[in-house]
Design brief:
Elements: E1 3-7, E2 10-13, E3 18-25, E4 32-39, E5 46-51, E6 58-60, E7 68-73, E8 78-83, E9 92-100, E10 115-116, E11 120-125
């Protein structure tokens, strides 16, 4: 079992930046592909970004390409999401998720990730 705890959310003005962190305990993250999802009120949970176990490959949803960067530090058992040029439509609860296995493929469906954090709120004001 791996436990995930997100942090770094908050209130920011449009155009601002936030850096989310996802700290893991219980298992080393070096055997997990990781992802960030988000869920706005009344909407489905949405894939944001994912990264392979080594950090060698990443994928992003089109709406965040060029603004968000996913990264990881396996020595610190932590995954990050750097969010720049934030817009009100980025407002959501952000979740990190883990999928066991050193696979090259990075799925975007929430059902393919086994472990989830509790989420951190990101609110972007206009």
């Amino acid at each position: 079992q791996v436990q995930l705890v997100e942090s770094g959310g908050g209130l920011v003005q449009a155009g601002g930046s936030l850096r989310l962190s996802c700290a893991a305990s219980g298992r080393t993250l070096s055997s997990y592909n990781m992802a960030w999802f988000r869920q706005a009120p009344g909407k489905e949970r949405e894939f944001v970004a994912a990264i392979t176990w080594s950090g060698g490959s990443t994928v992003y949803v089109d709406s965040v390409k060029g603004r968000f960067t996913i990264s990881r530090d396996n020595a610190k058992n932590t995954v990050y999401l750097q969010m720049n040029s934030l817009a009100p439509e980025d407002t959501a609860v952000y979740f990190c998720a883990a999928r066991f296995g050193r696979y090259p493929r990075l799925p975007s469906r929430a059902t393919e990730y086994e472990y989830w954090g509790q989420g951190t709120q990101v609110t972007v004001s206009s």
